[in-house]
């Protein structure tokens, strides 16, 4: 049995997902490709968003893919790290903002 | 400043050792197909040279920089320099080949003591496109080179210069401390005499090589980003950006091996293999002349000491009939020319 859940080589096999459901697989990859095209946002901006989201969902495949993609696009490590801090701030903030709920509850119940 | 592989007496200073590395390991075990096998899949083997259009002349391996990715292994410690006699032989050939482009490279071509003489003589021959690959910092390196922009202008030279990034950090990491600031000053000087300005016939193009073990991104979008950043930050303008893939030879190969990126990089090149790029690889219309007058299919083969498959091995033996239609000498480094949109000294090929 495989000793780890993740194998970097599996990233290259992503396309094989379609083999077990051609229609949905094809639709997904078409959608995916379209999403990353230049649009109102540049492909570069989208790559940075993808990198930040990849860290938020902690997907090692996506981190690998979008770090490489960023380097290819000339995105600097400073830009990458700032994008990650945006993700971290939202993620941390999302925990902390629930503190208001905790405070409301405490204020209501506590004498 | 780092030293060249030659100065360090690295085993990779030996081109035979490089060729061995490129043929052994993953290519010997069959994990990856050899370049010849790959191009055979689409019936493109053997690669044949067509009509000569570009004569690329390497006037010497001496350079004021020692870039970490340099495929020439150039540097101040390299003493191989073309003589005036070889230049004279080349001038004779240019006249009879009908090649439309003359492309001077190095090292830093301007460091050859006969550089200006050669440019003056060659520009009389009347090639359509006369390129000098200038590393930019040479213009700032020494007082005697400060007037190069005017000299280039006088001879209507097409200047092609390297710039791995529009930020100082990434540029200096690849090309050495202080290179970015000097390159910016040199580009401003070139702009000041009219180079690179919109609509100007004084052509100024930039070459982008990735500063690491990854492939270049899309040439058009990189060009857009470069133009925006250089204009906003420094008021600099240029015409085209050529995105060039680093080939796994010489100092870049040394870096790949030392950083344990070699295999992954070769996998990436093979995976990005684009059969449509094969028809336009630059060796099909280019001939490369080394500092000592020998002929190669391209500057990369020159560095690997893979001579042309022809009886005419030296510029003094040049005969169109002996060189046109020759079989190109290939090895696994050629995957660098066929990855993605393809790569040549003029950037993408598809
Ligand atoms: S890449 Fe160009 S500038 Fe850099 S060391 Fe090599 S020849 Fe010189
Ligand atoms: S490395 Fe040289 S010989 Fe090989 S494909 Fe590229 S241009 Fe041709």
TrEMBL record, chain A:
Lineage, highest ranks first: Bacteria, Pseudomonadati, Bacteroidota, Flavobacteriia, Flavobacteriales
Signal peptide: none
Domain Carboxymuconolactone decarboxylase-like span(s) in chain numbering: 23-102
Pfam families referenced in this protein's UniProt entry, alphabetically: CMD (PF02627)
GO molecular function: peroxiredoxin activity
Transmembrane segments: none
Name of the protein this chain belongs to: 4-carboxymuconolactone decarboxylase
Domain of life: Bacteria
Automatic annotation (TrEMBL), chain B:
Domain Radical SAM core: 47-276
Entry's transmembrane regions: none
Pfam families: DUF3641, Radical_SAM
Superkingdom of this protein's organism: Bacteria
Required cofactor(s): [4Fe-4S] cluster
Gene Ontology molecular function, alphabetical: catalytic activity; iron-sulfur cluster binding; metal ion binding
Entry protein name: Radical SAM/Cys-rich domain protein
Originating organism: Paucihalobacter ruber
């Amino acid at each position: 049995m495989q000793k780890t859940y993740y194998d970097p080589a599996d990233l290259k096999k992503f396309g094989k997902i379609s083999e077990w459901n051609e229609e949905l697989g094809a639709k997904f990859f078409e959608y995916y490709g379209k999403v990353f095209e230049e649009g109102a946002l540049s492909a570069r901006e989208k790559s940075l968003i993808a990198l930040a989201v990849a860290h938020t969902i902690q997907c090692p495949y996506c981190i690998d893919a979008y770090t490489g993609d960023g380097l290819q696009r000339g995105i600097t490590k400073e830009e990458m790290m700032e994008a990650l801090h945006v993700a971290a701030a939202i993620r941390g903030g999302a925990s902390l903002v629930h503190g208001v709920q905790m405070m409301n509850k405490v204020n209501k119940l506590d004498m | 400043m780092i030293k060249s592989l030659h100065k360090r007496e690295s085993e990779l200073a030996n081109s035979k050792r490089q060729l061995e590395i490129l043929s052994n390991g993953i290519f010997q075990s069959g994990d990856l197909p050899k370049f010849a096998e790959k191009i055979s899949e689409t019936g493109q083997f053997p690669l044949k040279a067509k009509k000569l259009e570009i004569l690329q002349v390497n006037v010497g391996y001496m350079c004021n920089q020692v870039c970490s990715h340099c495929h020439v292994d150039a540097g101040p410690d390299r003493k191989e320099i073309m003589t005036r006699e070889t230049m004279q032989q080349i001038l004779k050939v240019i006249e009879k080949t009908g090649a439309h482009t003359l492309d001077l490279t190095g090292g830093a071509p301007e460091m050859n003591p006969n550089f200006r003489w050669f440019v003056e003589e060659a520009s009389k021959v009347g090639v359509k496109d006369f390129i000098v690959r200038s590393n930019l910092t040479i213009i700032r390196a020494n007082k005697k080179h400060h007037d190069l922009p005017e000299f280039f202008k006088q001879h209507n030279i097409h200047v092609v210069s390297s710039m791995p990034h529009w930020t100082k950090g990434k540029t200096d990491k690849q090309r050495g401390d202080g290179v970015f600031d000097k390159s910016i000053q040199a580009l401003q000087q070139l702009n000041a005499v009219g180079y690179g300005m919109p609509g100007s016939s004084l052509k100024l193009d930039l070459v982008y090589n990735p500063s690491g073990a990854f492939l270049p991104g899309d040439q058009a979008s990189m060009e857009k980003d470069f133009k925006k950043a250089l204009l906003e930050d420094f008021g600099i303008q240029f015409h085209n950006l050529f995105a060039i893939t680093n080939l796994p030879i010489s100092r870049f190969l040394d870096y790949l091996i030392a950083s344990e990126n070699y295999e992954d990089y070769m996998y990436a090149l093979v995976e990005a293999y684009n059969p449509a790029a094969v028809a336009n690889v630059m060796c099909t219309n280019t001939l490369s002349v080394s500092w000592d007058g020998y002929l190669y299919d391209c500057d990369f083969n020159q560095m690997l000491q893979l001579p042309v498959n022809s009886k005419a091995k030296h510029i003094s033996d040049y005969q169109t009939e002996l060189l046109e239609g020759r079989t190109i000498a290939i090895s696994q480094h050629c995957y660098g020319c066929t990855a993605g949109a393809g790569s040549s000294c003029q950037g993408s090929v598809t």
